[in-house]
Every structure is written in structure tokens, then in C-alpha cells.
Amino acid sequence: MKSSLRNNLVIALGILVSVVAIAQGISSYQLCRAGMSALLDLRLEQVAVRMHNGFASSIPATPERGSQPVRDIVITIHRPGAEVPLRSTDPALQLPEDAAAGFSSEDVNGEEWRIYTLRDPGTLIQVAQRSSVRNELERETAMTTLWPTLVLLPLVLGAVLLIVQRSLRKMNQLGNEVQDIDASHLKPLPVAGVPSELLPFVGSINRMIERLAQSMEAERKFIADAAHELRTPLTALQLQADNLQPHIVASNQERFKELRGGIARSGALISQLLRLARADAPVLSSTNEATDVAAIVVAAVSEVLPLAAARGIDIGAEEMSTDKVAAPGADVAVAVKNLVSNAVRYTPDGGTIDLCARTEGNVLWVEVRDTGPGIAPELLPRVFDRFFRANVDVEGTGLGLSIVKAITGKYGGEAVIRNRDDGQTGIVAAVSFPLAQAAGVAAATRARRVAEQQNGSHAQGTAASHQLHGRDA
Ligand SMILES: Nc1ncnc2c1ncn2[C@@H]1O[C@H](COP(=O)(O)OP(=O)(O)OP(=O)(O)O)[C@@H](O)[C@H]1O
Ligand SMILES: [Mg+2]
């Protein structure tokens, strides 16, 4: 079983409470039985003393045999030397006349009896009761003392469970918050309401988060600075290569083209590194933008439309939600453009790319579906890794999807890549962003839609969808 503080505490306290309850039950049962036995003995003694004080005549001289109830006591009075008892409540019972004075337990007619014997020179008085009756009386009375324990034990165990759960609730909350910590969410844990025993622990975690955030920020800054520094000489190199091209002799043009290709690839890598550094930057608290995703999808498609058209790729949109998302437009655009550019890059000539923006609950999904070769299932889990390229035959830096993941993670969204499951080859790449709720944006959007419907005009999404559909054109 997994070691759990809650389970350990509940089990330990449960065992402790149960042991105490059992010990208390046993001791009160025994004490009650002993008390009851003493009371019954006292009754035998008192009856004997009363008989000695002259109450013997109250016993009938010839009582009916076997007329006495089983639970009743038996009284026998003897005169020394007489054959038969002077008085007896049950003449069929022959109590041993030689029994020791005081209390004794004797076997009479195959049954055990508790006898009180009062002896003086002129009389022998014996008062007896069946031990089985006494035991039954003692048990019945002692059992009644167990009821409170039996009723209280489950209640106390339930209370223990509740108290432990309540005490550990804060710890569970902290555990959940620690689980939510990742590279894009390095917020310190809240200390308000944390029990004092946990404060040092939470403090250590917060210091660790701070150090981690600092070192990640330093790394991000280094990458951003390095990329930025490299961009200027590379741009100069590019310009010089452009200027040089007319002077390169025809036989060297092919090699010179490769050189320019290399410069262009380095430029692309630096641009992606800069985007990644920007995507990794922490969210500013002032970020409160509501972004129109439909417009971004339109722009992303417009950008690749000439290339797609040249390669005979049919690119279109099916469904276009007009909801706005809570993320800066520039970042949403980078994420969407990366998915669209992947689809165009990896889809063979004559393929099809479908886009849609769909609201599901509190999030908006942008989905890009292509008819490319797809990705081997064993490589799928790695596509979001930095510099990972599943297909090395096609040029790329392997950073695009890492940027997408960093952006969606930063704003509480998701990025998902899967192979199509509708019988065609290809990828379904999707990103989600939470809908903009703040500042009544959602309400304003709804109000605007209602107004548009009332005016009979097309919703922006419909317009966007028409604009996008290469097939319609
Ligand atoms: N639509 C797609 N179809 C097939 N493979 C894809 C698709 N999108 C991504 N991949 C695979 O996933 C890998 C990672 O993609 P990612 O966008 O991160 O990098 P890239 O496209 O190689 O480079 P970059 O986008 O930085 O120029 C790609 O190299 C490619 O092999
Ligand atoms: Mg890419």
C-alpha cells in the first residue's frame, strides 16, 4: 500500500481509539459483574441475618415441592441433631450442612450453588442461589454497560477520520498547487492559512521556485540576447550575399545558392529561437487582452495562401467561432501560424488542409487538419521537444511546436498533435485558449452577435469562413 500520512494517522488513531474502547469495555464489564456479584452476596447474607432474627416462621412449614421459581433464592433452617430441616423453601434441595460458615460455592444435585451459611449453637441457616442464575444476572447487567462504548466507538472513529481529513486539507491543496507548477507556471505557493508546521516546508519550496524561476529567466534571456546579437551580423551577411550574387560566375552559382540557403536557415533558426525566448517569458500581470481568433486564422491562412495555391493545396475553413480568448493576439498568432505552416510544409502537393475554430465549454480550440504523411505513433510524444524533427528530409528547425506548447501553456491552454483517425493519413494539430471572461468581453461579444443577427448581417466567423475557403473561390 502507498505510504500516506492521512492513512497512517487514521489507522494509528483508529487502532488507539479501538484499543482504549476495548480495554474500557472489558474493565467496565468485569467491574459491573464483580459489583453485581457482591450485591447478590449481600442479599444472601441479609436474608440469612433476617432469618436468624426471627423471620424463619414466615417460611411455610410444608412448602410445595418444586413450587419455587428457578431464579429465586432457597432458604433452609436446621436444628442441630434433627434429621430434616426445620424450615426449607425447597425441601427437595439438600444443602450441605457441613458447608463452611460464610460464603461458599457447592455442587448440589449436579448444579453449582452459591451458599451463605450462618451457624450458631442452636441453628444452622443457609441461604443459596444457583450460580447459573447469578451468572446470567451478572452478565445481563454488565452487558448494559457496553452499549455506550459500542455506540460511541464508530462515532469517535468517524470523528477521527474527519479531523484528520480537515487537518490535512491544506496540505492536499498545497500538493495540488505544487503539481500545477511547471516551467510556464512558476508562482510561489500561497502561505495564507498554512499551518505553522508546514510553513518551513512551503517556504523552502517557494525559495526553490524562486531560484528555478531566476535560473530559467537567465537562460531565456541568454538565448534571447544571443539570438538578437546573431541577427545583426547574419542580416549583414545576407545583404552581402545578395550584393555578391551578380558577380558570382555561372559555374559557382549552385554552390553560392547553397551558401545563401545556409544563411537563410540560420536566419530562420535565430527567428524561431527569439520566438521561443519570447514564448517562454513569464506572463505579465497586466496582460488582459481579449483576442479575436477568427481574424488570426484568416491572417495565418492568407499568409500561406499563395504558397498553398502554387502547390495545389486546397486550404479552407469549416467552422469559425467568433468567441474571443484571454491571450495576447501576437502570441495566439504565432501559435496558429506555426500549425498552419507545418500543415503546408508537410502536406504533399495537391493535398487538403482544413481549419476550424470551435468553442468547447470555457475554451476555444483551433484545429488544423492536413492530408500529409502523419507522424509515426512512437515519435508523437516527442514532437513538442525542442529541436525534435520527426522528418529530417524536410527542412525545419524543430522549434515550432515547442513555441506552440510554451504559448498555450503560458495562457492556460493546451496543444495537441495526433494522427487522423478518419481513414485518411495526416495530422490533426490543435491548440486551445481559455475564453476571455474578464471585463465583460464575453457579454459584449454575445450582445454584438445578437445585434448582428437582428440586423440580418453575417457573423464575422461566417465571413471569415467564406474568405478562407480556397475551394469556394
Ligand atoms: N503537420 C505535420 N505533418 C507531419 N509531420 C509534422 C507536422 N507538424 C509537425 N510535424 C513533425 O514534427 C516535427 C516538429 O515540428 P516543429 O514545427 O516543432 O518543427 P519544424 O517544423 O521541423 O521546424 P520549425 O517549425 O521550427 O521551422 C517536424 O520536424 C515534423 O517532422
Ligand atoms: Mg514547424
Can you summarize this structure?
This protein is an alpha+beta fold. Helix content is 51%, strand content 16%. The protein has a 5-stranded antiparallel beta sheet with strand order 2-1-5-4-3. Strands 7-9-10-12-11 form a 5-stranded mixed beta sheet.
Overview of this protein structure:
Residues 438-447 and 449-473 have low confidence and may be disordered. The strands form three sheets. Strands 2-1-5-4-3 form a five-stranded antiparallel sheet. Strands 7-9-10-12-11 form a five-stranded mixed sheet. Strands 6-8 form a two-stranded antiparallel sheet. It is built from ten helices and twelve strands. It is an alpha+beta fold and 473 residues long. Strand 4 (111-120) and strand 5 form a beta hairpin. Helix 5 packs parallel to helix 8 (400-410).
CATH-derived architecture of the largest domain: 2-Layer Sandwich
- Multimeric organization: single chain
- Our count of domains comes out at 3
Bound molecules: adenosine-5'-triphosphate, magnesium ion
Beta-strand content? 15-25%
CATH superfamily of the largest domain: Histidine kinase-like ATPase, C-terminal domain
Total DSSP helices? 10
Radius of gyration from the CA trace? 47 Å
Largest sheet: 5 strands, antiparallel
Write the layout of secondary structure elements.
Layout: H1 5-55, E1 74-78, E2 87-88, E3 102-108, E4 111-120, E5 123-130, H2 131-144, H3 147-179, H4 199-244, H5 253-280, E6 291-292, H6 293-310, E7 314-320, E8 324-325, H7 329-346, E9 352-360, E10 363-370, H8 400-410, E11 414-419, E12 427-434, H9 441-454, H10 460-468
Parallel strand pairs: 7-9
Antiparallel strand pairs: 1-2, 1-5, 3-4, 4-5, 6-8, 9-10, 10-12, 11-12
Helix pairs in contact: 1-2, 1-3, 4-5, 5-8, 6-7, 6-10, 7-8
Adenosine-5'-triphosphate is lined by residues 272, 338, 342-343, 346, 370, 372-373, 375, 383, 388-391, 396-402, 427, 429.
